[in-house]
Specification:
single chain; 385 residues; 17% strand; binds NADP nicotinamide-adenine-dinucleotide phosphate; binds ligand F7E
Length: 385
């Protein structure tokens, strides 16, 4: 077992929670940076905290911090003396970055510099390795298909541009100060704990809501965009592998398959036996129920499909969700990661959609049941503060 100490920024996010579990299983002591929030934001890592009701994991610790606060970052890196820092924190929503471009640049771009500079200032360049959460959004208006480590970047959003700075400052610190600093250029990765406003989770939650009669229609933006979707569990393993190499380097992590938003929605509804037809074009396109497989519906949802009917419009387009500049096609070539890290994805998109839809149906039923019984549904950690 390892006796290493890891510091994860973005611990409350999708990847932070999976990576924490992965490293704890390998024997690491894990420190997470958590932002103060006026409402609960620890649901993904509640099981790790010790409190009056559970032991938690004794190797898991956290501190309050923010990527925009350099003195806080320096203080905690000095105290924790981590062997590995995984910088996963970011304002990670591409569309929101058009509304908050300056903050996104500060947190996602300069935030990375603050971490690298803290390691350098504290004299830890020989000890502390840094992983930077780079992204396929760097490829933006793609210059090659598929995209590899050699593909030129062309970001298409304030998020992508901020991450471009973070990518290059990581490379620069590696070259200038001989640091172990690497970029994981990760394509989209999802899971049952994916943020609810990313398109995959938005769709799987809507499938659950619509099946149980709690939502009539799902509003989406560009259905033509295509993404290379993997599973977050596979992708955090790639982060860990990059940090175990003798030499720091940058790696594309992707499945090599691409799927449109329309097709993802079609498959997610098919999980519960609801078969969709798409009719119309552009902003007038609609997803309509063409057929219902009652046996499958009852098997998955656990009740008769009374809430839905053939001919029902369940997807509509709302141009609000369009982006000023879109990334239309992403498909990655992860052969370098396969050859050097020995990494290949274990999960298929089909299995992941099943897992996400099942999870959202279970979650909805559980919360609905609890609320009907008079319980307030909330997270654990805030109880002790
Ligand atoms: P996520 O679920 O949105 O989590 C982001 C995390 O960053 C959350 O813990 C969030 O805290 C925290 N955070 C945001 N702003 C912060 C700030 N100023 N200071 C400190 N913490 C802050 O994102 P994810 O999907 O896990 O992605 C992890 C990282 O990989 C991100 O950097 C993302 O940009 C990048 N990435 C993601 C994908 C993907 O498909 N998931 C692909 C490529 C790259 P709160 O919980 O308080 O909001
Ligand atoms: O959008 C389209 C949208 O928000 C995917 C982040 O993790 O992955 C993520 O960024 C596509 C886009 O993810 C809706 O226009 C249609 O083309 O799920 P998303 P993203 O923008 O690809 C990258 C790799 C990251 O690094 C980011 O941090 O889906 N789309 N209709 C929609 N998207 C959303 N969110 N909501 C819609 O209603």
């Amino acid at each position: 077992m390892s006796e290493k100490v890891a510091l994860i920024t973005g611990i409350t996010g999708q990847d932070g929670s999976y990576l924490a579990e992965h490293l704890l299983q390998k024997g690491y002591t894990v420190w997470g940076m958590k932002r103060r929030s006026s409402s609960f934001n620890t649901s993904r890592i509640d099981a790790l905290f010790a409190n009056d009701r559970q032991e938690g994991n004794p190797h898991f610790h956290y501190f309050y911090g923010d990527l925009t606060d350099a003195s806080n970052i320096i203080r905690y890196i000095q105290e924790i003396q981590p062997d590995e820092i995984y910088n996963l924190a970011a304002m990670s929503h591409v569309k929101v970055s058009f509304d908050t471009p300056e903050y996104t640049g500060n947190a996602d771009g300069l935030g990375t510099l603050r971490i690298l500079e803290a390691v350098r200032m504290l004299g830890l360049t020989g000890k502390t390795k840094v992983y930077q959460a780079s992204t396929s959004e760097l490829f933006g208006l793609v210059q090659q298909v598929p995209q590899s480590e050699k593909t030129p970047f062309y970001p298409r959003s304030p998020y992508g541009v901020a991450k471009l700075y973070a990518y290059w400052i990581t490379v620069n610190y590696r070259e200038a100060y001989d640091m172990f600093a690497c970029n994981g250029i990760l394509f989209n990765h999802e899971s049952p704990v994916r943020g609810e406003t990313f398109v995959t989770r938005k769709i799987t939650r809507a499938v659950a809501n619509i099946s149980l009669g709690m939502q009539k229609v799902l509003s989406l933006g560009n259905l033509d965009a295509k993404r290379d979707w993997g599973h977050a569990k596979d992708f955090v393993e790639a982060m860990y592998l990059m940090m175990q190499q003798d030499q720091p380097d940058d790696y594309v992590i992707a499945t090599g398959k691409t799927t449109s938003i329309r097709e993802f929605a079609r498959r997610a509804f098919a999980e519960v036996g609801v078969h969709l037809d798409f009719v119309g074009n552009g902003a007038n396109e609609k997803g309509v129920i063409a057929a219902i497989d009652r046996n499958r519906f009852e098997g998955m949802v656990g009740m008769r499909p009374d809430a839905i009917y053939t001919g029902q419009e369940v997807i509509q387009i709302d141009p609000f969700y369009y982006r000023p500049t879109e990334v239309s096609l992403l498909i990655g070539d992860a052969s370098k990661a396969r050859d050097i890290l020995g990494w290949t994805p274990k999960h298929t998109l089909e299995d992941m959609i099943t897992e996400m839809v099942e999870n959202d149906i279970d979650l909805l039923k559980r919360n609905h049941h609890l609320m009907k019984s008079g319980f307030v549904v909330h997270n654990e950690l805030e109880d002790i503060f």
